[in-house]
């Protein structure tokens, strides 16, 4: 099954009651003034699309951003958006590739089976000549039964074990942040985990879309990634780590976990070892 859907394919399914469309656009970190992606959604969205607020559908008991909520809270929130366990779930973002894969990963981690991303997002939809709507969308609540995949997400302690074992850890942050030569957008140290490999998430994209599976295979191979071995993805706060996870899924990797706390947690942990480029 393809992980990407074209605007033409989505348009043919738009009135299908078994298909639900979600705008999962997060504002970029460190941009002033902040981008109000919900307001942009209300101004213009794919007809019938609901707004999947990644920040809102997260664990609010921790100061770490975007952390997964518990199963009950996730199921309650996603059911309210009209998402059922047996539906085809189409996720898009307003521009580029950034946060839609995080929503894809969240849904897959909680047991959704048929989740795809609109190739090129809202921009591609408009370029294909399809209409958009504005305003609120009232969704009929659906039944989402969560089935949590514990192997899809790892904790700090599990990450430490992986580092000690020399497992593959991929970091989606920009090179300067990974090297420790550029600051983080949050008030924490930059640098990287011992033995981790830097693959900035934008390297997986071209013109606001994912590269082909063929090109992604070449990219990961050039970085020394063996898709048959266990792989952990990380980033600043667990969002673009999902871009790497999605790209790995596109090339057939089967043992991929995401470190949900990512650098926000790691850099502040007293037991963390931080390395920087010489």
From TrEMBL:
Which keywords does UniProt give here? Pyruvate, Repeat, Transferase
Q: Which PROSITE patterns match?
A: RHODANESE_1, RHODANESE_2, RHODANESE_3
Q: Which residues form the Rhodanese domain?
A: 15-134, 163-275
Top-level lineage group: Bacteria
**Which InterPro entries does the record match to this protein?**
Rhodanese-like_dom (IPR001763), Rhodanese-like_dom_sf (IPR036873), Thiosulphate_STrfase_CS (IPR001307), TST/MPST-like (IPR045078)
Q: Name one GO molecular function term.
A: thiosulfate-cyanide sulfurtransferase activity
Q: Which Pfam families match?
A: Rhodanese
Q: What PANTHER family does UniProt report for this protein, alphabetically? A: SULFURTRANSFERASE (PTHR11364:SF27), THIOSULFATE SULFERTANSFERASE (PTHR11364)
Q: Which NCBIfam families match?
A: PRK11493.1
Q: What is this protein called?
A: Sulfurtransferase
What organism does this protein naturally occur in? Terriglobus albidus
Q: What high-level taxonomic lineage is stated for the organism? A: Bacteria, Pseudomonadati, Acidobacteriota, Terriglobia, Terriglobales
